[in-house]
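[09:14] KT: can someone run the structure on this one? pasting the chain below
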Amino acid sequence: MIAIKEDRILKFNGYFTAFCVCGKSSQYTTKDKALKMIKRGSCRNCKKDYRNINDDEIDIYKVGNKWGKKCSGCGVDQLYTRKDHAKQSSVSDWQCKKCVSSAKKFSENRPVGDKQRMYNKFSNSAKSRGIEWNLSIDEMYEVYNGYCNMTGWEISISYSEQTASLDRYIVTGKQIGRAHV
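[09:31] RB: done, structure tokens below
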């Protein structure tokens, strides 16, 4: 297994222990979950909790039989059926779907497609293992010919039936091989 690059995460007894900026630690079963907490910037212990805040300290209001708050991005009303959801939304500064989509550069939530999804999967896998990834999506698909370069077996890179893995060789260039050889 490749070493963890983040110095606030340790592996011990099969669990990943992540240390938050508040000084507390949390245990996770996967490295991805620990990295997500580090990236988020707060753990369960130090995140703001709506239950500890008085109603007059936050800006929520009643609209008919629903509770609402304004989106901090565009000012549009966000309505919730439960008061505690509106409070959590206000405390955590949840934005509306449109603002989140534009902030994350989604293009109106259109489907990505198998080709882009597979590229993202290989790219994210390499990055999480500390392997440099400098292939474009076009370069990755130029190499794919439907057969493993090591065994000659037929392989698939469709998202639902993926049997390929992308291996990089310094001497022979880029190759796609069978995942479970």
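[09:33] KT: thanks! The chain has three domains: 1-46, 50-103, 114-178.
[09:34] RB: yep, looked fine to me
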